[in-house]
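Design request, tokens follow.
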């Protein structure tokens, strides 16, 4: 039974997909688990990167300051924020992404939207994303481009291409939980991760160790 860490996940969607495949999977987030699972670590995922995750880590670091859609705030901050705060938030976001991407874990998948150049410049050992995917390739009739940065992992193959290209997340009504629903991961993609990455054989370095 291989060990899997899903970093920055409170919903348990990816964790549960790997659990269903028989893996020793845990989610970790500053928020409590949405489903109350005992397979959740409440805290900073960076504190647990060395805990023997021998299959892989899937990370969902916050993208607010890294993504292209937020770059405008680096020149004209939103109400109640200063430019200094915006750039400090960017540095913090890039540092978190860097810590996941450079973690001492054999296989790593980091999920985020397309980044702007200032974020790329701040990420240690930055590489371009391996692939971009859409939920309609995995059974969800909507559009939301998601990029995957992959280390020692193959690209995901579409599993269920369906009709529908609604941009649901951008139509979410304002409210206290809007950010949660906009960031919620897709079960079809999570199942593809578990099915396509869950049966990978140990890397050569693991076999000869």
């Amino acid at each position: 039974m291989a060990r899997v860490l899903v970093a920055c996940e409170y919903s348990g969607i990816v964790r549960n997909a790997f659990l269903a495949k028989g893996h020793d999977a845990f989610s970790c987030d500053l928020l409590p688990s949405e489903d109350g699972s005992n397979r959740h670590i409440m805290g900073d995922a960076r504190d647990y990167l060395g805990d023997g995750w021998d299959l892989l880590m899937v990370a969902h670091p916050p993208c607010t300051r890294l993504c292209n859609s937020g770059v405008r705030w680096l020149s004209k901050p939103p109400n109640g924020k200063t430019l200094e705060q915006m750039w400090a938030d960017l540095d913090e976001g890039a540092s978190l992404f860097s810590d996941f991407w450079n973690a001492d874990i054999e296989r790593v998948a980091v999920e985020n939207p397309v980044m702007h150049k200032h974020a790329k410049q701040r990420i240690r050992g930055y590489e371009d994303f391996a692939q971009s995917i859409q939920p309609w390739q995995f059974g969800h009739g909507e559009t939301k481009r998601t990029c995957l940065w992959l280390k020692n992992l193959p690209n995901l193959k579409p599993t269920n291409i369906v009709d529908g290209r609604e941009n649901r997340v951008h139509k979410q009504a304002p409210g206290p939980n809007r950010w949660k629903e906009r960031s919620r991961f897709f079960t079809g993609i999570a199942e593809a991760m578990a099915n396509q990455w869950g049966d990978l054989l140990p890397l050569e370095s693991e076999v000869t160790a």
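Comment from the thread starter after seeing the answer: thanks! The chain has six helices and seven strands.
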